[in-house]
Specification:
Length: 215
Protein backbone atom coordinates (compact mmCIF):
# COMPACT_ATOMS: atom_id res chain seq x y z
CA UNK A 1 0.00 0.00 0.00
CA UNK A 2 1.17 3.58 -0.59
CA UNK A 3 2.52 5.57 2.30
CA UNK A 4 -0.40 7.25 4.14
CA UNK A 5 1.52 10.46 4.82
CA UNK A 6 2.58 10.69 1.17
CA UNK A 7 -1.08 10.51 0.14
CA UNK A 8 -1.85 13.41 2.47
CA UNK A 9 0.94 15.46 0.95
CA UNK A 10 -0.19 14.71 -2.61
CA UNK A 11 -3.86 15.48 -1.97
CA UNK A 12 -3.66 18.40 0.44
CA UNK A 13 -0.20 19.70 -0.42
CA UNK A 14 0.55 20.62 3.18
CA UNK A 15 4.17 21.47 2.42
CA UNK A 16 3.54 24.14 -0.20
CA UNK A 17 0.01 25.21 0.77
CA UNK A 18 -0.22 25.45 4.56
CA UNK A 19 -3.73 26.96 4.49
CA UNK A 20 -5.70 25.34 1.66
CA UNK A 21 -8.92 27.17 0.80
CA UNK A 22 -12.21 25.62 -0.28
CA UNK A 23 -15.41 27.53 -0.98
CA UNK A 24 -17.57 24.44 -0.45
CA UNK A 25 -16.06 22.43 2.38
CA UNK A 26 -15.04 23.58 5.84
CA UNK A 27 -13.17 21.91 8.65
CA UNK A 28 -16.57 21.22 10.18
CA UNK A 29 -17.21 18.71 7.39
CA UNK A 30 -14.32 16.58 8.62
CA UNK A 31 -15.12 17.22 12.28
CA UNK A 32 -18.73 16.13 11.95
CA UNK A 33 -17.69 13.02 10.04
CA UNK A 34 -15.31 12.19 12.86
CA UNK A 35 -18.02 12.90 15.42
CA UNK A 36 -20.33 10.38 13.72
CA UNK A 37 -17.52 7.84 13.43
CA UNK A 38 -16.86 8.15 17.16
CA UNK A 39 -20.51 7.29 17.77
CA UNK A 40 -20.34 3.89 16.06
CA UNK A 41 -16.78 2.51 16.07
CA UNK A 42 -13.87 2.13 18.46
CA UNK A 43 -11.57 -0.80 17.86
CA UNK A 44 -9.97 -2.48 20.84
CA UNK A 45 -6.35 -1.44 21.27
CA UNK A 46 -3.52 -3.82 22.12
CA UNK A 47 -1.61 -1.34 24.25
CA UNK A 48 1.69 -1.91 22.45
CA UNK A 49 4.73 0.30 22.61
CA UNK A 50 5.38 0.96 18.93
CA UNK A 51 8.35 3.27 19.28
CA UNK A 52 10.28 3.85 16.03
CA UNK A 53 11.95 0.82 14.48
CA UNK A 54 10.03 -1.66 16.64
CA UNK A 55 10.26 -5.06 14.86
CA UNK A 56 6.91 -6.25 16.30
CA UNK A 57 4.72 -7.21 13.28
CA UNK A 58 1.72 -5.71 15.10
CA UNK A 59 3.42 -2.32 14.80
CA UNK A 60 2.80 -0.88 11.33
CA UNK A 61 4.43 2.51 11.80
CA UNK A 62 4.19 5.12 9.04
CA UNK A 63 7.48 6.36 7.64
CA UNK A 64 7.84 10.10 7.06
CA UNK A 65 8.57 10.62 3.31
CA UNK A 66 11.85 12.24 2.28
CA UNK A 67 10.02 15.26 0.87
CA UNK A 68 8.04 15.89 4.06
CA UNK A 69 9.86 18.85 5.55
CA UNK A 70 6.98 19.60 7.93
CA UNK A 71 7.98 16.68 10.17
CA UNK A 72 11.57 16.06 9.13
CA UNK A 73 12.45 19.59 10.25
CA UNK A 74 11.18 18.56 13.69
CA UNK A 75 13.36 15.44 13.59
CA UNK A 76 10.28 13.20 13.31
CA UNK A 77 10.94 10.26 10.98
CA UNK A 78 8.18 7.84 11.90
CA UNK A 79 4.62 7.85 13.26
CA UNK A 80 3.75 5.17 15.78
CA UNK A 81 0.84 3.04 14.59
CA UNK A 82 -0.34 -0.30 15.95
CA UNK A 83 -2.84 -2.81 14.59
CA UNK A 84 -6.11 -3.20 16.43
CA UNK A 85 -6.48 -6.15 18.78
CA UNK A 86 -7.81 -9.20 16.89
CA UNK A 87 -11.18 -10.65 17.80
CA UNK A 88 -10.67 -14.16 19.17
CA UNK A 89 -13.78 -16.32 18.68
CA UNK A 90 -13.90 -20.04 19.40
CA UNK A 91 -12.79 -21.53 16.09
CA UNK A 92 -11.80 -25.08 17.03
CA UNK A 93 -8.28 -24.37 15.78
CA UNK A 94 -9.49 -23.52 12.27
CA UNK A 95 -7.76 -20.64 10.48
CA UNK A 96 -10.08 -17.68 9.98
CA UNK A 97 -9.89 -14.17 8.58
CA UNK A 98 -8.71 -11.67 11.14
CA UNK A 99 -11.55 -9.58 12.51
CA UNK A 100 -11.69 -6.77 15.05
CA UNK A 101 -13.86 -6.03 18.08
CA UNK A 102 -15.92 -2.88 18.41
CA UNK A 103 -15.90 -1.82 22.06
CA UNK A 104 -18.77 0.69 21.79
CA UNK A 105 -22.34 0.45 20.52
CA UNK A 106 -22.46 0.15 16.73
CA UNK A 107 -25.51 2.40 16.33
CA UNK A 108 -26.01 6.11 15.81
CA UNK A 109 -27.31 6.46 19.34
CA UNK A 110 -25.31 9.30 20.87
CA UNK A 111 -23.02 6.92 22.75
CA UNK A 112 -20.13 9.32 22.18
CA UNK A 113 -22.12 11.77 24.31
CA UNK A 114 -23.82 9.45 26.82
CA UNK A 115 -21.31 6.58 26.89
CA UNK A 116 -21.68 2.90 26.02
CA UNK A 117 -21.88 1.57 29.58
CA UNK A 118 -24.15 2.22 32.56
CA UNK A 119 -21.13 3.20 34.65
CA UNK A 120 -19.97 5.88 32.21
CA UNK A 121 -23.53 7.11 31.76
CA UNK A 122 -23.79 7.75 35.50
CA UNK A 123 -20.43 9.55 35.54
CA UNK A 124 -21.73 11.98 32.91
CA UNK A 125 -25.01 12.78 34.66
CA UNK A 126 -25.59 15.51 37.24
CA UNK A 127 -27.59 14.69 40.41
CA UNK A 128 -30.69 16.32 38.88
CA UNK A 129 -30.59 13.91 35.92
CA UNK A 130 -29.35 16.42 33.37
CA UNK A 131 -26.08 16.09 31.48
CA UNK A 132 -23.07 17.03 33.60
CA UNK A 133 -21.42 20.26 32.41
CA UNK A 134 -18.73 22.63 33.64
CA UNK A 135 -19.33 26.36 33.86
CA UNK A 136 -17.01 28.75 32.06
CA UNK A 137 -14.23 30.06 34.34
CA UNK A 138 -14.14 33.70 35.46
CA UNK A 139 -17.84 34.15 34.66
CA UNK A 140 -17.33 34.22 30.90
CA UNK A 141 -20.72 34.68 29.15
CA UNK A 142 -20.30 31.62 26.95
CA UNK A 143 -21.87 28.17 26.66
CA UNK A 144 -21.06 25.51 29.23
CA UNK A 145 -18.00 23.31 28.84
CA UNK A 146 -17.79 19.54 28.99
CA UNK A 147 -17.00 18.19 32.47
CA UNK A 148 -13.34 17.82 33.39
CA UNK A 149 -11.71 14.43 33.04
CA UNK A 150 -10.46 13.03 36.36
CA UNK A 151 -6.65 13.43 36.63
CA UNK A 152 -6.11 9.71 37.12
CA UNK A 153 -7.37 9.04 33.58
CA UNK A 154 -3.96 9.94 32.21
CA UNK A 155 -4.76 12.86 29.90
CA UNK A 156 -2.43 15.80 30.49
CA UNK A 157 -3.47 19.25 29.29
CA UNK A 158 -0.80 21.72 28.22
CA UNK A 159 -2.79 24.49 29.88
CA UNK A 160 -3.34 23.98 33.65
CA UNK A 161 -6.39 26.26 33.48
CA UNK A 162 -8.01 24.09 30.80
CA UNK A 163 -8.35 20.45 31.84
CA UNK A 164 -8.92 17.53 29.54
CA UNK A 165 -12.61 16.88 29.02
CA UNK A 166 -14.81 13.92 29.91
CA UNK A 167 -17.41 12.55 27.48
CA UNK A 168 -19.02 9.35 26.31
CA UNK A 169 -16.10 8.65 23.98
CA UNK A 170 -12.46 8.56 25.08
CA UNK A 171 -11.32 10.38 21.92
CA UNK A 172 -13.03 13.64 22.88
CA UNK A 173 -9.67 15.39 23.40
CA UNK A 174 -8.14 14.40 20.05
CA UNK A 175 -8.57 17.86 18.53
CA UNK A 176 -10.48 21.09 19.07
CA UNK A 177 -13.09 20.25 16.43
CA UNK A 178 -13.98 16.96 18.09
CA UNK A 179 -14.17 18.63 21.50
CA UNK A 180 -16.30 21.45 20.07
CA UNK A 181 -18.80 19.08 18.47
CA UNK A 182 -19.04 17.15 21.73
CA UNK A 183 -19.65 20.35 23.71
CA UNK A 184 -22.31 21.60 21.29
CA UNK A 185 -24.18 18.31 21.39
CA UNK A 186 -23.86 18.07 25.17
CA UNK A 187 -25.24 21.57 25.61
CA UNK A 188 -28.12 20.74 23.27
CA UNK A 189 -29.08 17.68 25.32
CA UNK A 190 -28.56 19.65 28.53
CA UNK A 191 -30.94 22.35 27.27
CA UNK A 192 -33.35 19.73 25.98
CA UNK A 193 -33.62 18.20 29.44
CA UNK A 194 -34.11 21.63 31.01
CA UNK A 195 -36.76 22.65 28.48
CA UNK A 196 -38.61 19.35 28.81
CA UNK A 197 -38.77 19.83 32.57
CA UNK A 198 -40.09 23.37 32.08
CA UNK A 199 -42.59 22.07 29.54
CA UNK A 200 -43.84 19.42 31.98
CA UNK A 201 -44.12 21.96 34.77
CA UNK A 202 -46.17 24.30 32.56
CA UNK A 203 -48.09 21.38 31.03
CA UNK A 204 -47.52 22.71 27.51
CA UNK A 205 -47.30 20.61 24.40
CA UNK A 206 -43.80 19.46 23.30
CA UNK A 207 -44.84 20.73 19.86
CA UNK A 208 -45.61 24.20 21.15
CA UNK A 209 -44.08 26.80 18.83
CA UNK A 210 -42.13 28.62 21.54
CA UNK A 211 -40.94 25.30 23.00
CA UNK A 212 -39.37 24.26 19.70
CA UNK A 213 -37.87 27.67 18.94
CA UNK A 214 -36.04 27.58 22.26
CA UNK A 215 -33.70 24.96 20.81
Amino acid sequence: MPNARQISINIIGSNDCPNPNNNVLTHLTMNFGQFMDHDITLAEAQGLNCEPYNPNPECINIQVPENDTVFLDQDIHEFEFERDAPHKPATSCKPITREHSNVITAYVDGSNVYGSTEELLEELRAPDGRMLVMKQPHGCPMANLLPALPPEEGCVSRDPLRPCFHAGDERVNENQGTTGNQAQTKNFFHSLKTNKKAQRDKKTSPFDKNYLVSY
